[in-house]
Amino acid sequence: MALITFMSDFGENDHYVAAVKARILSINPEQTIVDISHSITPFDISHGAYVLRSVFREFPTGTIHLVAVNTLDSLNENYIIALIGGHYFLGSDNGLLSLISEEDPEIIVELKNPDIENTVFPSRDILARNAAMLAGGTPPKELGTVTTAFKSYLDRQLKATRKQTSGNVIRIDHFGNAITNIDQEIFNILRKDRGFVVKFGREEIRSIHPTYAAVEPGECFVVFNSNGFLEIGINKGNAAELMGLGFDTPVMINFDEA
Amino acid sequence: MALITFMSDFGENDHYVAAVKARILSINPEQTIVDISHSITPFDISHGAYVLRSVFREFPTGTIHLVAVNTLDSLNENYIIALIGGHYFLGSDNGLLSLISEEDPEIIVELKNPDIENTVFPSRDILARNAAMLAGGTPPKELGTVTTAFKSYLDRQLKATRKQTSGNVIRIDHFGNAITNIDQEIFNILRKDRGFVVKFGREEIRSIHPTYAAVEPGECFVVFNSNGFLEIGINKGNAAELMGLGFDTPVMINFDEA
Amino acid sequence: MALITFMSDFGENDHYVAAVKARILSINPEQTIVDISHSITPFDISHGAYVLRSVFREFPTGTIHLVAVNTLDSLNENYIIALIGGHYFLGSDNGLLSLISEEDPEIIVELKNPDIENTVFPSRDILARNAAMLAGGTPPKELGTVTTAFKSYLDRQLKATRKQTSGNVIRIDHFGNAITNIDQEIFNILRKDRGFVVKFGREEIRSIHPTYAAVEPGECFVVFNSNGFLEIGINKGNAAELMGLGFDTPVMINFDEA
Fold it and tell me: Which ipTM score applies to this complex?
């Protein structure tokens, strides 16, 4: 049976997370449910999309991801199953799912549910129920109507020229590291063996380190992280606090003239 | 095998939660354990009762709920199994379990345990051990002595007249929404198609919304939530902070003269 | 199949915890993974060692403990499997594992991994992968090279004379209780039926209580906790805040002259 993962902005001190799991386990008591995080900032689809995008491909193909972030975005919210990169996502059609992959969904199904008009807890009454049925083998098309409607947002794009690539901090993580949208592949294409300088705030750093521990404790590192994005931090320290980095801080890499 | 749920005031950064789970898994390594929350405010049986009451009926009948909130309330604390609404609860007889249902327990068993006099960690040494044995099929009566002793507290009651129903905020949730003890059923009985006004602080609201997103972001909604209780919030905002709502804030509904 | 436990300093609002679990579940979708805590203070091997030491023996012998705390301590970090007290530990060789037991490891295996030079996420790429393989039955020696290299730290030792034993607070827990390194066994050996006084800050307490609830709410208790260590707290209160106890605060027990 497929795994179900579960991500939400529900926090840890109410009954909401357990209510969703209970609904799934009532349908199939043997179902494995893996928490991704329930500490997504309330209503913040950008935070949710970042976390989900960073991890969903680690799960086996066919995994079902229940995404309960900002689920009541509009009065007549649509709830959907989207098949993206071989994974199923169930969530509100609030744009979050458009931010987790460059690929368009292979299938989008708008969920039909007798309760859909009335519920104030769609994550339990619609998403959990349909996730359990999908995991139990019901084909997506039997759970609703195939549609092409899909709310799409554009992520802030990287700017890249021969001389410079410039991006932004897209996430301050638990360690205070600043993760940017500057991509290792694009960096490699642009660089062509030239020297370069990474610039942010008043800092200028002329190398990219192989790992977080390549600098002394208390010093600043710049690495490409495990998802291939440029990450700035302080070894054993909190870079966001100590260097004033935050969401959206500009970061650029200037390449030397050849 | 029955599910075991687990709720505590242990927090997330010590070994207490894992110690309880380890004890259960040592007795039965295949046991499914579902966390309800470990962020119940320390010693706060009112918070614990609210969360448990809101969710336990979502689980299949026969589920075993291990309740480790304020477990060392008195020097000669009793530990019990109570069967309520088809669900088994194991906890300290500290009054919490009297607050989760209007029903009296069908059976109460006082747990006997060789360690019961000595342990300073009854959640692990008494509750976990007995929860695992109950899940493994041991009948409750073999785990202790049937009793009628049951510490009972009365919840703050709703006041209801022909003209008005008045209650209180019983919980500020993770989103800053204020959940009251005003019940949808009683509201419907009293209302009889009359107009009404919901009053709290300086606010007066003349309708109940079908869902959280029925008002614009930043505006106040009043809904009956998924548990049938009146809930006040701000769409995409924190009502507790922005409108000064807190635990026990009075909320009333005045009905128009017919 | 053996259980895998998982402890980290990753926090709850990123994808790191889920990425490690996904890697394990990709290798074996049936694997049971039990969280110990993901709220270990970042880089704090002392906090991690305290939590792990307090709980690992509760799990069945043969359990596999994935320890992801301060995993990138040095540039050429070693990753190891250590067999201690019948349990397998996978972690960075950063000294944490030397603090969880008085026993030396029975076996230490330095993990070999094609990715080992390159990864910036060793918990996922090295520890998770090897934990899953170990749980699946691969013998430890096939996962790397047997070694004797093992980074060892000495815990702050208890001082004990005929007249006095003196130690320190080693952990302030979720309830604000102060846990010391003063051991019940040593206390019993030294005491020999004599009277004694427990001293810390300006407090002097002439008894050890059988349980947290042996004093009135708001009063100070001193107990030997479920791990056999002297613990100081306030019944229903936060001793660390109210009595100014913190990590490393000295605590001593003076024995009366016979």
Answer: 0.94
